[in-house]
Amino acid sequence: MDLKTKRKIKGNIALFLSTLAAFMGLFWLVFIIFDVLRHGITAINLELFLEDPAPPGVPGGGLRNAFVGQFLITSVATVIGVPLGILGGTFIAEYARGTTFAKIISILSDIMVSVPSIVVGTFIYALLVKPFGHFSGWAGAAALAFIMVPVVLRTTEDMLKLVPWTLREAAFALGASYFRVIKDIVYRAAATGILTGVILAIARIAGETAPLLFTSFNNSYFTTNMNEPIASLTVTIFNYAMGPYEDWHEKAWAAAFIITVVILVVTVTSRMIIHWRYKS
Description:
77% helix, 11 helices, mainly alpha
């Protein structure tokens, strides 16, 4: 057997194993999504969105408080995390480009991306919950923002570094300040990539449960007061799935269905933005 044949056999084996691994991962992904859709879509109704939870053991009611609470916590986390992440990524990619400090921050950001969310929850608990003596929506939003910042920061840094330096030099030659160059030239060139990173970061925090267990906790009643414990969809799913009532289980499936659909839509949208941007 000659060398070319051996290489071809090895290549075919590697291709087969890689394809098999890809299909195995795809199978479990489709299985999970199909199972959530199968159980969740049958429990969708208007009461789920318009009514508050019924007392334990009583059929009926909805999850209005959880939907509103999840929206508030996620919105506040986005308002906190996105500007911090974009500004941090801008500093590393532009003002501290090539310095040791920038490399250290980038490494720490990579580490923070992989830190378990429950560790973030316990950290925010010690920082914002225990000193004040009560859970709150602000603490939950801070925990999610803490998770979001390194994702947005690294995406912003990478996107800004992809912008050719010659664009900056051309703007400098026209007398523009560095701030104007970043705002009017660099940000515009990297806007699609930065937006995609923001969307993916929002999708990441939308399904987090562990940090909220230690921070915003939960609330069985409707409230928009972020200074007190507030309901969230993910924690409600956890509580209802662990509960003894079949009605709770149905609502947990329905809520899981809603979160899954939202994350899928957000993820697909971000991919379409990338495809449209680089195709054009």
